[in-house]
Amino acid sequence: MKKSPLNLPTIARVISQKMTIGNLTTAILTASALSIAAISSGCSQPEPIEQNAPEYGLVTTDDANEDIDTYVLPQDTAILDEPNADEIFYGKRLLNETKRLLPEHVGAQMNCNSCHISQGKIPLGDPYINSYNFYPRVMPRSGKEVDLTKRINGCFQRSMNGKPLKPESPEMLAMLAYMKWLSQNTPKEQKVDIQNTGKVDESLTPDPVRGEQIYKAQCATCHGDNGEGIKDSRGDIVFPPLWGDESFNIGAGMARTYKAAAL
Ligand code: HEC
Ligand code: HEC
Hints:
Layout: H1 8-17, H2 24-42, E1 55-60, E2 67-72, H3 85-96, H4 98-101, H5 117-120, H6 131-134, E3 137-138, E4 145-146, H7 148-159, H8 170-183, E5 190-192, H9 208-218, H10 220-223, E6 230-231, E7 237-239
Antiparallel strand pairs: 1-2, 1-5, 3-4, 6-7
Helix pairs in contact: 1-2, 3-8
């Protein structure tokens, strides 16, 4: 055990002397945060836990769906090995901090990864893992062929209630580069065997009264009493809004009860 070099009561006193009464709580919180930091730095460092990377089957895209190989979810540190690492990292940042980095293109208070959970890397969280290979394709709703650039711009216009990016813009190319990297050179005629979203039971009749009860009990703590979401003190989104002017618009997939049951 190393001894903590910090004298916590002194630090607390100095902080509180410099602050007005109104800031006392901040001082106390700061002091306790410091003490937690001191305790953890004083103890011997635990060994990092080696976690096995999640693996999924690689199956053929034809009807046979033959299981032929394995896809190993890459770690972000592996991006450093890529010749265009900067571009891929930029794409990753844009997907996570879309509102802050592209305010002209995002009308909602949302980021791409407000819906595409955990950098688009997990099953049922609308992952991007197959997206690079999945496009161009004919969209069931419109019957039109859409490439990945257009698909992303569709989310800009509806899910983000914003404006499309220029197809050749560095931002669009960076997002595509991230999605390409995530596909890990999966051949075009194969796909990673993961489910994009959960299934919605369409036999249920939407019931706003019960919905409100469930919302209050299970969702409002994070998404706000009126679905308005919560931002941090810098104005960045912590919990995204679920409806209203600052959320996705009525054209979004999320607004379809057969897809996401959110309105
Ligand atoms: C409000 C939630 C939401 C936000 C925000 C959002 N999306 Fe989406 N996105 C969806 C849904 C839902 C789908 C699937 C829609 C469908 O099945 O028609 C989707 C589909 C996609 C797809 C196609 C996935 C595939 O493999 O078919 C891509 C790529 C995509 N979004 C990228 C983005 C990007 C990039 C952004 C940010 C600019 C973004 N999305 C913002 C909800 C969202
Ligand atoms: C513990 C906090 C928490 C609770 C409770 C919670 N969510 Fe979320 N929700 C989040 C976060 C955080 C995100 C953004 C995704 C991310 O950052 O991983 C999100 C994203 C969403 C989204 C997609 C983005 C959007 O704004 O449309 C929907 C829809 C959603 N939540 C609905 C719900 C519903 C419905 C409930 C209650 C049944 C609920 N959430 C409960 C934290 C929470």
